[in-house]
Design brief:
Length: about 270
């Protein structure tokens, strides 16, 4: 039986509602067949694709990702991984729009350097403004700075995607307080992007109130990617359910789980 949130608590991005709150990447797998199997196990509906690294039609003689993950079944989310300037990012997504017959939903990331892969926020803001004016629906990878996140939302980005920690690091959520500030102020979906290492990281992101999680390395780099994909699916679902249920407050004192009234008292 499907959980209630899967059928009644969808994730809406750029006017389209999805049942799954787990978004996955398509890189770093052994082959396209493993990519397909892991994607199915994750239950993902949105698949992000690095246009500079993954073939979706640029090379007619190479295996095409769209043959195993067709746009008729999945929302393909082209991204600008590997771009270090706003100009390169804009050009890459304009190319993706041509390859995908006018597709508007994209993921913007403009990196600051090759060592940290931390976002270059001035270039990200510049690219976001250009892309939104050009009619794109922009999901944007950014730092966990609430002010920068608000600026991106004001530009018109349809989803804010702050990093939990450095791309591919597996360090999990290093600054939950900043992430909570972004969630509290945002009127568009907030998805954790980058740094997730294992299922508990995904669950924590959802328990904090994130609308979803995007990951690639945590699944593709696991010893068993398909099993890890399944674990991440369950973690995202559990974290969302816990958030909706409302956790008990943290206290510095014990609180008995059984009522004290009417308890049996031994004779003295």
């Amino acid at each position: 039986m499907e959980s209630q949130f899967l059928t009644e608590d969808g994730l809406t991005i750029a006017g389209k509602t999805y049942r799954s709150r787990l978004l996955v990447g398509s890189g770093k797998y052994r082959n396209l067949e493993q990519t397909r199997e892991a994607t199915i196990a994750a239950g993902a509906e949105i698949i992000t694709v690095a246009i500079r690294r993954v073939n979706i039609g640029q090379d007619k003689n190479a295996p095409n990702l769209l043959d195993v993950l067709p746009p008729s079944d999945y929302t393909i989310l082209p991204n600008t991984a590997g771009c270090y300037t706003a100009a390169d990012a804009v050009y890459t997504l304009q190319l993706a729009r041509e390859l995908l017959n006018g597709h508007k939903l994209v993921k913007l990331e403009v990196l600051g350097d090759e060592k940290t892969l931390f976002p270059n926020m001035p270039e990200t803001l510049k690219a976001a403004e250009t892309l939104v004016k050009d009619g794109f629906d922009v999901m944007v990878y950014c730092s966990d700075d609430p002010i920068q996140a608000r600026m991106l939302e004001d530009i018109g980005c349809c989803s804010i995607m702050p990093l939990a920690s450095l791309i591919g690091s597996g360090m999990g959520i290093l600054n939950p307080w900043n992430l909570s500030l972004i969630i509290e102020q945002s009127k568009v979906p907030v998805l954790v992007d980058a740094g997730v290492g294992t299922a508990s990281d995904a669950a924590i992101a959802m328990e904090l109130g994130c609308d979803g999680v995007l990951m690639n390395t945590a699944i593709a780099g696991a010893s068993d990617p398909v099993r890890m994909a399944r674990a991440m699916k369950l973690a995202v679902e559990a974290g969302r359910e816990a958030f909706l249920a409302g956790r008990i407050p943290r206290k510095f004192a014990a609180s008995p789980s059984s009522p004290m009234a009417g308890r049996i008292v031994s004779p003295s």
